[in-house]
């Protein structure tokens, strides 16, 4: 059932069309991630949902109740929406306990207990409660911001790049913890992020914005495997794009014959994700060897560049990012095999 319905929402700032007829439907208890290049309108959409801005056109409806249209606006504090932003935006002059308890009435008899419970929920040690925000690490501050947002028992939680200021390891731990916490509490959540991997791992629905419009919405896996266009394909991860001749469900390309889905035929471009391609230094029957021209070692992953004489976009050699210990060396010959089907554009 649709919980948040964004229908044909547009927003303009001067001559900039920040959002153009955006529609998005969000189910109760679900987690949606909004991704898109810088300036695509992600923050504008979040601000409209939160109630900090009024749409020029369209409607925003939460739990069957109109929140905003061009001539009407329920103010932010009456929407029951929690917001956690990139910097946490804690009140520097208040203790951690008072930051968490900001939305709980001072006179509430169980205030301290509720604050302690919320700190516990976000796994914040009780000794932190008497401290000030500047005495906490970035990750701890984000936990406080989350606890403060949870204190108001929001119907909807908006997370605006909440993990982006954290180190890689902590970022992943926080993302998993927050995701688990919100799922357990059954809170419908929208995450805006620059990190596509984070978005795919966090969400059950992914929305891609470009130039103020939604270009594709669906389960992360569907978008990753069946992107609506090349730009979306490359935006969501590494992709190997190859020219191919397609007939009877098989694409004939530089990597051999690869099955494709659908009824496409003729000269088309196909897409493979790097994890579909295995590189072996053992001779393989029916596969011709290809020379390695360059290796770029980058820790957990390495990029192998191959002399296939075929360009993915007309000029570039074929480069494949791999994750393995025994990277080949330039000058070696390798054998490429493909798993699964190719996607046809
Ligand atoms: N208050 C404003 N006044 C004028 N233009 C604005 C305002 N807010 C946003 N814009 C413009 O609207 C467009 C969308 O901005 P928005 O901040 O929503 O993008 P974004 O996808 O969140 O970008 P980023 O990923 O860089 O945060 C941009 O072109 C931006 O310059």
List keywords for this structure.
alpha+beta; 36% strand; OB fold (Dihydrolipoamide Acetyltransferase, E2P); 21 strands; Rossmann fold; binds adenosine-5'-triphosphate; ATP binding; membrane; 8 helices; Sugar ABC transporter; 6-stranded mixed beta sheet; 345 residues
The strand order across the widest sheet is: 7-8-9-3-10-11
Tell me, what is the CATH class of the largest domain? Answer: Alpha Beta
Bound ions, cofactors and other small molecules, one mention each: adenosine-5'-triphosphate
| Gross CATH architecture of the largest domain | 3-Layer(aba) Sandwich
Please give the domain count. Answer: 2
What is the string of helix and strand elements? EEEHEEEEHHHEHEHEEHHEEEEEEEEEE
Tally the beta strands. 21
> At the fourth CATH level, what is the homologous superfamily of the largest domain?
P-loop containing nucleotide triphosphate hydrolases
Q: What is CATH's topology name of the largest domain?
A: Rossmann fold
Low-pLDDT segments: 311-315
Description of the molecule:
- The chain has about 350 residues and is an alpha+beta fold.
- It folds into two domains: about 1-230, P-loop containing nucleotide triphosphate hydrolases (Rossmann fold), CATH 3.40.50; about 240-345, RNA polymerase II/Efflux pump adaptor protein, barrel-sandwich hybrid domain (OB fold (Dihydrolipoamide Acetyltransferase, E2P)), CATH 2.40.50.
- It contains eight helices and 21 strands.
- The strands form four sheets. A six-stranded mixed β-sheet has the order 7-8-9-3-10-11, with helices on both faces.
- Helix 3 (about 110-120) packs across helix 4 (about 140-150).
- The protein is globular and about 80 Å long.
- The site of adenosine-5'-triphosphate has 12 residues, from strand 2 and helix 1.
- Adenosine-5'-triphosphate binds next to strand 2 and helix 1.
């Amino acid at each position: 059932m649709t919980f948040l319905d964004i229908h044909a929402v547009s927003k303009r700032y001067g001559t900039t069309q920040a959002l153009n007829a955006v529609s998005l439907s969000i189910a109760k208890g679900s987690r949606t991630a909004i991704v898109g290049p810088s300036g695509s309108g992600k923050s504008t959409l979040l601000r409209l949902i939160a109630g900090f801005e009024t749409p020029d056109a369209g409607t925003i409806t939460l739990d069957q109740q109109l929140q905003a249209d061009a001539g009407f606006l329920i103010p932010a504090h009456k929407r029951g929406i929690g917001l956690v932003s990139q910097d946490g935006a804690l009140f520097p002059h208040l203790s951690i306990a008072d930051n968490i308890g900001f939305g709980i009435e001072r006179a509430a008899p169980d205030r301290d207990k509720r604050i302690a419970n919320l700190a516990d929920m976000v796994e914040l040690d009780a000794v932190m409660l008497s401290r000030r925000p500047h005495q906490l690490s970035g990750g701890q501050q984000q936990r406080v911001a989350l606890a403060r947002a949870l204190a108001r028992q929001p119907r909807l939680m908006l997370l605006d790049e909440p993990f982006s200021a954290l180190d890689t390891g902590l970022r992943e731990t926080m993302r998993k913890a927050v995701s688990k916490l919100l799922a357990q509490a059954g809170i419908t959540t929208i995450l805006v992020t620059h990190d596509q991997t984070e978005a795919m791992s966090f969400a059950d629905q992914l929305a891609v914005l470009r130039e103020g419009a939604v270009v594709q919405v669906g389960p992360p896996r569907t978008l990753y495997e069946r992107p609506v266009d090349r730009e979306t394909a490359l935006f969501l991860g590494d992709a190997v794009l190859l020219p191919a001749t397609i007939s009877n469900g098989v694409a004939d390309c530089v990597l051999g014959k690869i099955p494709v889905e659908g009824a496409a035929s003729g000269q088309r471009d196909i897409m493979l994700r790097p994890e579909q391609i295995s590189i072996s230094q053992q001779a393989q029957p029916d596969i011709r060897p290809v020379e390695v021209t360059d290796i770029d070692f980058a820790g957990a992953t390495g990029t192998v560049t191959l002399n296939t004489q075929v360009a993915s976009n007309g000029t570039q050699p074929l480069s494949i990012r791999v994750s393995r210990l025994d990277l080949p060396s330039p000058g070696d010959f390798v054998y490429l095999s493909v798993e699964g089907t190719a996607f046809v554009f």
